[in-house]
Amino acid sequence: MKALVHAELLKLRSTRTTTGLLLATLAMVGLTVAFSVPKAGDQNAPLPLDDAGVLAGTVGISFGFPQVLVVLLGCMAFSQEFRYGTITSTYLVEPRRTRVLAAKWLSVGLASVVIATTTLALSVPFGIALIRSRNGDATVAAQFWQMVAAAFVVMVAYGAIGVAVGALVRNQIVAVVGVLVWMLAVEQIVINSFPAVGRWMPIGAAFALLQLGPAISLDGKLLSSSIGGLVLLGYTAAAVALALHITPSRDVL
What is the pTM of this model? Predict the structure, then answer.
C-alpha cells in the first residue's frame, strides 16, 4: 500500500495540470479575500469590519475555489487513467481494485491537507493585513480556530468525493465538466435562491461546518455546524461506498 500511495503522489505532483490548477486557485484565493473584506464604514456588509468574526468569515470564504480544486484532482486521479489507457497497467501491478481506490483516496487526502495549509498560509496573513489596514477587528478567536479545523475536514471530504466521482464516471471530460457545472452553477444558484433546499446539499453542509452563514448573508438559514458536518460525512461515505461497490466489478474498457 505504501508503494501505491507513493506512486499516486508522484502522479499528482509530476503533472503540469496540477501545478497550473494550484497556481490559478491560489490567485483566486487572493482575489476572494480582497473582495470579501468589507470596505471601511460599510455597515451594510454581511460582516462589518468591527465584527469579531470578520477574519474567520473571510478566510472561510476563501476556501471556495480550493474545494473545487480538490474535487477536480480527485476526479482526474482516476479518470485520467482511463483517458490515457494507464488503468490496465495500474491494475496489473495491483489487481485488487479496492487497494487502488484506497491509495488514490489517501494520496488525494494528503494533497488536500497540503492545499488547505497553503490556502491558510495565503489567506490568513493577507486577510489580517487587509482588515487592519481598514481599521477592522482582525481577532483570532475560538471561531477562527474552529473554522480552520473544519476547513481541513471539508477539503479531505471533498477530495474523497472527487476520487469517487472519477471512479464512477471514468470519462474525464464528463467528470470535470459535470463537477464544474454542479459546484460553480447549480449549487450556487440553489443555496442562494432556495436555502431551505441548498443547506442539505454538499455546499450547504460545508458552509454550515465552516460557520459561514453570517459571512454569506445566510445567517439562520443553514444547518448547525455539527449537523452540517454529519451531512457532509454522509455524502462522503455514500460516495466512497458506491465507488467501492461498483469499481471492482466493472470492465476496464
Answer: 0.91
